[in-house]
């Protein structure tokens, strides 16, 4: 009885699919032109033997199924599990002190079966990998609150005295403002702001002033913890 060579047997559908996958990878990597890919694909679909399939993909590298590649990569990162049998200290010392009979009794005390090795759990591996990723938190940008306006004194108007005392023109209730904090007045060249020796200071555009300074509309002036933006006289 003569045996049929493996190359002469008719290929299965799974073998045709694997050959087509090799052709697709070859076309995707640029090893095969579009016309060559179409011609070989038709040849694979009409192949009558495994040898013809092998001829169609002989010059192309074989590709391993993706699930096998993924499994091998995951297993490479898994810690190796070492199964150890528990032996009591008395059994160990007895084996050395009392000779072969004690060793046999210590061996009899061992469990009949070692603990089974932990099974590979791909879901647990992926979950552990996801837990190790950095957490992203959304930070909402701070919304800028417009500052209240402070109208500059009109030309010829009296000096505006700012403070917490009863004699202040612009009286504030904030505890960070001194009783006699600062004064704002109009001159021929514009407006001048002067600190009156306040406890928490007077600022112009974030800078604390120690002398009389010139100010203009749009400047941010602060009296202690209270801040205004200067505006034209309404």
Automatic annotation (TrEMBL):
Top-rank lineage group of the source organism: Bacteria
Key words, A-Z: Phosphoprotein
InterPro entries from the UniProt entry: Cell_Proc_Reg/RNA_Proc, DUF1707_SHOCT-like, FHA_dom, SMAD_FHA_dom_sf
Pfam families linked: DUF1707, FHA
TM segment ranges: none
Start-end of Low complexity biased regions: 100-111
Segments for region (Disordered): 91-112
Phosphoprotein in keyword set: yes
Domain FHA residue range list: 160-209
SMART domains cross-referenced by the UniProt entry: FHA
Protein name in UniProt: Uncharacterized protein DUF1707
